[in-house]
Amino acid sequence: MAMVGRLAALGPVGPGARLGILGGGQLGRMTALAAARLGISCHIFTPEDNGPASQVCPMVTLAAYDDLDALSRFAASVDVITFEFENIPAASVAHLAALRPVRPGWKALETAQDRILEKRFFNDLGIATAPWAPVTDGPQSLAEAVAKIGCPAILKTTRLGYDGKGQVRLNAPGDSAAAWAALGNRPAVLEGLVPFVSEISVIIARAPDGATACFEPTLNHHREGILHTSSVPAPIRPQTAIAARAIAESAALALDLVGLLAVELFVLADGSLLVNEMAPRPHNSGHWTMDACHTDQFEQFVRAVCGLPLGDPSRFRAMRMTNLIGDEVHDWPLLMATPGARLHLYGKVESRRGRKMGHVNTPV
Ligand SMILES: Nc1ncnc2c1ncn2[C@@H]1O[C@H](COP(=O)(O)OP(=O)(O)O)[C@@H](O)[C@H]1O
Ligand SMILES: [Mg+2]
């Protein structure tokens, strides 16, 4: 295995190889299933016992993300390493990178881990975001940020936010103290509320040789801060779609990314775009590709991180993906009986409120 690993650093990691994935959620599960179809087996590294990914993988390391000994053993057993979860500590990523190819690399992870670095990264590329100001020194810097950005605005923690968690809306400057306390006095960023007409996202794959393949932009609807549906084709102008792809392309290039990059965007009334955030991995808004594209996002992810030829990302049918959140998963008998609907469940036992339990792809 060590020999294979060494060769892997020099060339593609093909059928018979082993892909290491940090993170054990549904994105890891669907990546492992796609890898299996290509004859590539996965080794999951996760602190969660019997999570969605572990259930479909014979090789699992159950350990904390900062357990360097466990990370060393994990690295020794795989040919290439990737992530389905970007919030891995810097020291762990550096440790792994000394042992095996790590794709994407630290720059993409670091930038996606921190909303301030992320917004600066896009702005430095000349790509617009919502107006924003850092709030890193407590209530005083929040007051300065409110003076600069105005209200309404959204205060977001710089790190570890997802599904609308770690965010508070400020309707007036008087809401500042409560908002700051609600986020638990953590470093944050204040963003002006964007009057978007729609939200879209675009997912690009980039291979080690710099080749790219982009999925078409998706129209996204959120409910209570959580993605509810993603639909294609998105009702946007051709120029808007071209601009979205160009943003993803330049970000992937600037990050020297190998793998997938998902970029969430706000569409304004004039068709122009603002970047909201990015994720250097498969993304919930790309689940429609599983039943509508020649190569879906999970297979494309495996191909990219393994240095295999990228697949054809083009779409062969219109599709709507609907997330099954919490108790919505109990509709599975009905969904299973719906002609054309393709049900994907993540194997989570408990359907807690706000928890992503599965999704269904429905041709439209
Ligand atoms: N500046 C903003 N203006 C308007 N709506 C926003 C803004 N920021 C976030 N939202 C809304 O909240 C959702 C979740 O915010 P986002 O920053 O993407 O966080 P998360 O990491 O939870 O996905 C967005 O998809 C959008 O609907
Ligand atoms: Mg988001």
Automatic annotation (TrEMBL):
A Pfam family for this UniProt protein? RS_preATP-grasp-like
Catalysed reaction per UniProt?
5-amino-1-(5-phospho-beta-D-ribosyl)imidazole + hydrogencarbonate + ATP = 5-carboxyamino-1-(5-phospho-D-ribosyl)imidazole + ADP + phosphate + 2 H(+)
InterPro entries per UniProt? ATP-grasp, ATP-grasp_carboxylate-amine, ATP_grasp_subdomain_1, PreATP-grasp_dom_sf, PurK, PurK_C, PurT/PurK_preATP-grasp, Rudment_hybrid_motif
Tell me if DNA repair is a UniProt keyword of this record: no
Q: Which SUPFAM superfamilies match?
A: Glutathione synthetase ATP-binding domain-like, PreATP-grasp domain, Rudiment single hybrid motif
Question: To which pathway does this protein belong?
Answer: Purine metabolism; IMP biosynthesis via de novo pathway; 5-amino-1-(5-phospho-D-ribosyl)imidazole-4-carboxylate from 5-amino-1-(5-phospho-D-ribosyl)imidazole (N5-CAIR route): step 1/2
Q: Does this UniProt record's set of keywords contain Ion transport?
A: no
Q: Which residues form the ATP-grasp domain?
A: 119-306
The molecular function GO annotations come to: 5-(carboxyamino)imidazole ribonucleotide synthase activity; ATP binding; metal ion binding; phosphoribosylaminoimidazole carboxylase activity
Keywords of the record: ATP-binding, Ligase, Lyase, Nucleotide-binding, Purine biosynthesis
Positions binding ATP in this chain are 115, 156, 161-167, 191-194, 199, 222, 276-277
- Top-tier EC class: ligase
Per the record, the GO terms for biological process are:
'de novo' IMP biosynthetic process
Organism domain of life: Bacteria
EC number(s) given by UniProt? 6.3.4.18
Q: Which GO terms describe its cellular component?
A: cytosol
> Subunit structure, briefly?
Homodimer.
User: What does this chain do?
Assistant: Catalyzes the ATP-dependent conversion of 5-aminoimidazole ribonucleotide (AIR) and HCO(3)- to N5-carboxyaminoimidazole ribonucleotide (N5-CAIR). Catalyzes the ATP-dependent conversion of 5-aminoimidazole ribonucleotide (AIR) and HCO(3)(-) to N5-carboxyaminoimidazole ribonucleotide (N5-CAIR).
Q: Which family does it belong to?
A: Belongs to the PurK/PurT family.
Q: Know the name of this protein? A: N5-carboxyaminoimidazole ribonucleotide synthase
Lineage, opening ranks: Bacteria, Pseudomonadati, Pseudomonadota, Alphaproteobacteria, Rhodospirillales
